[in-house]
Amino acid sequence: xxxxxxxxxxxxxxxxxxxxxxxxxxxxxxxxxxxxxxxxxxxxxxxxxxxxxxxxxxxxxxxxxxxxxxxxxxxxxxxxxxxxxxxxxxxxxxxxxxxxxxxxxxxxxxxxxxxxxxxxxxxxxxxxxxxxxxxxxxxxxxxxxxxxxxxxxxxxxxxxxxxxxxxxxxxxxxxxxxxxxxxxxxxxxxxxxxxxxxxxxxxxxxxxxxxxxxxxxxxxxxxxxxxxxxxxxxxxxxxxxxxxxxxxxxxxxxxxxxxxxxxxxxxxxxxxxxxxxxxxxxxxxxxxxxxxxxxxxxxxxxxxxxxxxxxxxxxxxxxxxxxxxxxxxxxxxxxxxxxxxxxxxxxxxxxxxxxxxxxxxxxxxxxxxxxxxxxxxxxxxxxxxxxxxxxxxxxxxxxxxxxxxxxxxxxxxxxxxxxxxxxxxxxxxxxxxxxx
Length: 436
What we know:
By secondary structure, this protein is of the alpha/beta class. Helix content is 18%, strand content 29%. Helix 1 (8-18) runs parallel beside helix 7 and helix 4 runs parallel beside helix 7.
């Protein structure tokens, strides 16, 4: 372990300087969800690709319905149906004077038509009062012929979605660096793209250590506790956009731990361990990994450090295996582990994804507390808190103990007390890291 005391910023800078974005690959749209585009996507077809109706109704000429009312409706001859997926009216017919075509939402506007009258503004071809809907073609095919009474006039291009009104060829659909979410996938599909070039979602292996750990659902015996860290950190990795794999807790045996980690490298872009990094006799992560790569993998190895922070003083970072897979070794106390993930692992995951902004949002907020908060001199303290955006305040939850996981579950922010602050009085403005 290095004898140097590292600052939070120095440790993070070291991590981000070593972690590089994953190589781009071409993926099918469903597989690209959550990934980051590496190239601009330019539109090649108009969207919509043709003038089409935004309503179920009748395609008409403007002059034929001018002045129409319920008392004096415009009576037009229905010459056919145009359904979504049709190329237009049968036999390429046009809507001529005194004529109308029954048209469905999304169907192309037939030649000769200038606007669409919603079916609710007509009698629906029944000869009665205003219609509430069209009769199904299968039930009443005669609705595609006969007459329709129009009760209201329309303006030119009314209820018509113009060709290219959304995007046109040559438009920039999505910029490089965009995260491919559901709306982006919808747009890509709409413009005809079946694949995109992206950086894949990082694969994160999360592994907790400790002979005292029992899996949830199993019986607790004397001196044992449930393994919560691996579940929390796996969920946090997925929340950050990664594909995460949780490895059940490994007992305090250096050889077993090293073998387990080596076995996991085949599916890891980054490895995260929790526990075993302090100064105890059974802190096996240091024992197992301190010399990894020193001889077999030049440039590899894991450096264990002390950071000027609370919680989370002991940390480890380096690379292992033939591909120099990044490994971050976090403390074992639940709060220390989670805070360390937010400060160091999450930015590393977002860097692997190729994102530019890898940090949680930060705001300034007024400390809302009944008494001053103490903070150790020379250390940056991170306290759990709840942030009230409307009031501009942040309230501590739980105490400073690194084992208080219940308070962590209530928190949506981290209160940051700088290294030179030993006491933060109520009403003090402080930096807040937003976790949600």
